[in-house]
Specification:
about 120 residues; mainly alpha; two-stranded antiparallel ribbon; 3 helices; 2 strands; about 65% helix
Length: about 120
């Protein structure tokens, strides 16, 4: 029995010689210091700067607010806790766990920014 199915025909574009657009990875754009790479790097630097300024402002308000609190309410200066004046207690001991917490939160948020940046690089 003869084969009656039609023959397959290959259809090609007349522009087979046309240049294909090659996608350049974003990491290569950054390494080559192109305008697009500069946009990506400046966005990362801006987000890191915003985070650092937020941490610094929080630190300044809280730590700078302690002396302001005692200036506005001088009766708090006479309070003693375990024979230690409250201003000394706050400025000498209570500030350090706060500094540690701010530093820990800053590092976590900075790493999160960097992970998001590398995810953008990997997707492109």
């Amino acid at each position: 029995m003869p084969d009656t199915s039609p023959r397959r025909v290959r259809v090609t574009s007349p522009r087979t010689g046309a240049a294909r657009v090659q996608r350049v990875p974003v990491a290569r754009e950054i390494e080559a210091q192109t305008a697009l790479g500069e946009v990506y790097m400046s966005s990362l630097l801006r987000s890191q700067l915003r985070l650092a300024l937020l941490a610094l402002a929080t630190l300044a308000v809280v730590v700078g607010g302690i002396p302001l609190l005692f200036w506005l309410a001088p009766e708090l200066s006479t309070v003693e806790v375990l024979a230690v004046p409250l201003p000394w207690l706050l400025l000498a001991f209570a500030v350090y766990p706060f500094l540690f917490a701010i530093g820990w939160l800053y590092v976590r948020a900075a790493e999160r920014n960097e992970r998001a940046f590398t995810d953008v690089l990997d997707r492109s």
